[in-house]
Write a structure and sequence with these properties.
Strand content: 25-35%
Number of strands: 14
Order of helices and strands: EHEEHEHEEEHEHEHEEHEHEE
Number of helices: 8
Strand order of the largest sheet: 10-9-8-11-12-14-13
CATH topology of the largest domain: Rossmann fold
Shape: globular
Radius of gyration: 18 Å
Number of domains: 2
Low-confidence stretches: none
Structural class: alpha/beta
Distance between the termini: 41 Å
Mean pLDDT: 90
């Protein structure tokens, strides 16, 4: 798979936030903030050059666009990938890092081109929220599994059936490698472009983006058992009211909300 990388020369926080919000509307799916720049990534099949250039040319920002082939993406991740510590709860490292001490769970994740290592604020918040619940013996559906990091953690926390799905072949292949590395036996992975899987689940994880959450909110609610919880992230504070309207319509209500680095995560339950 090929990704496109956008580098925006922005050092103003308000401009970074505005750019990120606009790019999310255009399906850019991963972001990195540097002191004087915002980096954004999108799969080639979702990349619309005329759309993004029309937006960028309406601003005064300096920018560059470049194509990143699979092998170059891997090298980019490895060169920048530092271990991640989520409180004293979870440590996430690649195979070439030293073991992490002082955490309850240590996960080995090689991100390659998949989304979700703990570096991104949304993954970090999802892991923090997962800590508050009892996962022992539970059924879990991880919609948009990416690297598989949340599915892997769910098994480590005691879940006995974990289904991870993604619409990207490369993500499924990457997840399979990470599942094997972490010696998981209860995580099953499927290549799917929808959330209409069989059965109901105690916990549903959906760390994706606003558009996919809105498109799938009804079916995600149906996949949730009566006393289950839906964890969602991948959206900004200004998106909260739109998502609230969507989940209220399908009989869900907010139980928890957290915010980190301009991103929001929620835990929802049936009313």
């Amino acid at each position: 798979m090929i990704y496109w990388k956008l580098t925006l020369a922005i050092d103003n926080e308000a401009d970074k936030e505005a750019a990120m919000a606009a790019l999310l509307q255009m399906d850019w799916e991963s972001f990195e903030e540097e002191e004087r720049a915002l980096l954004a990534y999108i799969p080639e099949e979702s990349f619309n050059r005329s759309e993004v250039e029309a937006f960028l040319n309406s601003k005064s920002w300096t920018y560059s666009l470049e194509q990143i082939a699979q092998q170059n993406w891997n090298a980019l991740w490895e060169s920048n990938f530092e271990p991640v510590i989520v409180d004293d709860f979870v440590g996430i490292r690649a195979h070439f890092h030293e073991p992490i001490v002082g955490v309850e769970y240590e996960l080995q994740i090689t991100p390659k081109m998949s989304f979700g290592t703990g570096h991104h604020a949304t993954t970090h918040m999802m892991i923090q929220l997962m800590r508050s619940f009892n996962w022992v013996g539970k059924k879990v559906f991880d919609f948009g599994t990416g690297t598989g990091v949340l599915a892997i953690l769910a098994e480590k926390l005691g879940a006995t059936l974990v289904l991870g799905t993604d619409c990207d072949t490369w993500c499924i292949e990457n997840s399979e490698e990470n599942v094997a590395t972490n010696e998981c036996i209860h995580v099953k992975l499927q290549l799917l472009d929808h959330a209409d899987v069989e059965g109901e689940y105690d916990f549903v994880l959906a760390n994706i983006n606003r558009h996919i959450l809105l498109d799938n909110m009804e079916i995600l609610a149906k996949k949730l058992r009566g006393d289950g919880r839906l964890f969602i992230s991948g959206f900004l504070p200004e998106d909260v009211h739109v998502l609230e309207e969507a989940f209220h319509k399908v009989g869900l209500e907010q139980e928890q909300l957290v915010q980190r680095d301009k991103w929001v995560a929620m835990v929802l339950r049936h009313k």
